[in-house]
Amino acid sequence: MRCSRPLSEVARIQQGRYLAQNEMAECPGPGAEVPVWGANGILGYTSEPEYQQAVALVTCRGNGCGKVQWTRAAAHVSNNAMAIIPMDGDGVDQRFMYYSLHEANIASVISGSAQPQITRTHLSAVAISWPDRGERERIVECLDSLDQRIANNRFLATNLESIARAIFKSWFVDFDPVRAKMEGREPEGMDPEIAALFPDRLVESELGFVPEGWEWVPLSEMAEFLNGLALQKFPPNGHDDLPVLKIAQLRSGALDPDKLASREVGDRYIVSSGDLIFSWSGSLMVDVWCSSDCALNQHLFKVNPASWASKGLLWAAIQKNIEGFQAIAASKAVTMGHINRRHLDEAFVALPSRESVKIMSSSLDALTENIIHARLESHALASLRDFLLPRLISGRLSIKEVEAAANTEPCEHRVD
Distance (Å, rounded) from C-alpha 293 to C-alpha 309? Predict the structure, then answer.
């Protein structure tokens, strides 16, 4: 490690302060705008920050002992974490500290087996990379630009998901365009071609009022819900094995390279980026997979839309029903709640003709493709950041070398 110095020479280490549960709000709001950071993220919210700007944290107790976090903004730090404040540093040095701590050997100073912990004294002795100010600035500029792009993409994807859900609810649940026509108004915010597909009348049905000419279609008819396999029956054989996709991986979006299955599972059970996956057991959720190929484990459905349906429509339709499915699963007196296929038969969506569905779904599909694009770009940027971070911090790679490799352009301009 170049310019290696004990942490105590470049930073102050401040133990967090205990805050009782009844002193924190569960959600942010008036009088509770400041996040309280604990060992593994935000515990709650309070009114008074201990730190007026973002700081790097090291978890000092519990299973996450040694974890490095970044508060992103003003914060209160609980007693299970320590804030690392650079000496006479500004925002650049704060950020560099966060990156540099990732490469410090913090694990070497963890003590205690029953209750792992790190003391300030021991952490003070940890060696940390601390190059000259100019190099710190250049490294932060490069890595932070990647992190900003990742954050922007995640924000964009989240907003697009919200928009897709809002459109689905407006068109296929609340029937807003139909109600607008009933009141003599033109439907708002949609292409005239799509607006023309909505009737101007609601009629009674067994499941409630529905646009004239529409029908209630069960989810089970809108797609094939392909259940995954018991992948322990397909152990890896060393020939281009596949990572296993389980509920945990679907939730985190990251695969475990140590959990593999043979490709003998067959093509139908291989999940590729862009596939719609529905967890029907345990933590019920539905999401579009945006990572590398993997094998579909049991308890997960690979949702293959019918020829007339679409991924965007199915995603929104399942999301609309997910709370009901979660309630069904929670009501089961078993260790892992779940739904059955019959619940897909009993979950209905009001839809027009197949041809109209295709046209109406185009908006949802466009949003879905943009979400996938934003997520994939985030993955690529994160991979690039994770490749560069240890090399830049350790000095094995310089910013000049990065820019030279990127044809002399700044690295943030080479990630499109």
Answer: 24
